[in-house]
Amino acid sequence: MSKEKLYTLIKSPIITEQTAQLGESLKQVVFKVDISANKKEIKKAVEKLFNVEVIKVTTSVVKGKTKRNRFGLYKKSDYKKAFVSISEGSEIQFEGIN
After folding, report:
1. Which of 14, 20, 22, 45 could share a disulfide with 28, CB 3.0–4.6 Å?
2. At 85, is the secondary structure helix, strand, or coil?
3. What predicted TM-score, i.e. pTM, was given to this entire model?
4. Beta pairing partners, 10
């Protein structure tokens, strides 16, 4: 898998209070990934980009909400979330990443 494919597959980490608790208790990291990505591709991409051992990948598709402003109704895009379980000895640091 090429470097370009790896960077387009994983779009960004999702860092919230809920995902921080998942990281502490279950050693899981949450990423926003490409809607067409499957679990095997996500596992390979995380292992190559962050040099960690991935145990399990769980995905869910988040449906975009319908919003309203003064110009009318619009719909936000759907996206896919990947919950990546990493091994006990490995860790992913997001400080300093732009």
Report:
1. 22
2. strand
3. 0.86
4. 33
Q: Which tokens go with 62?
A: 């988040």
Q: How far apart are CA 59 and CA 53, in angstroms?
A: 18
- Please give the pLDDT value at position 3: 81
93 φ/ψ angles, rounded to the nearest 5 degrees:
-105, 130
23-72 tens-digit pLDDT: 889 999 999 999 999 999 999 999 999 999 999 999 999 999 999 999 99
What DSSP state is assigned to residue 63?
A: P
> Which tokens belong to 79?
């996206």
H helices of the chain, where? Answer: 3-9, 17-26, 39-50
Question: Hey, what's the torsion of the CAs at 2, 6, 97, 82, to 10 degrees?
Answer: -170
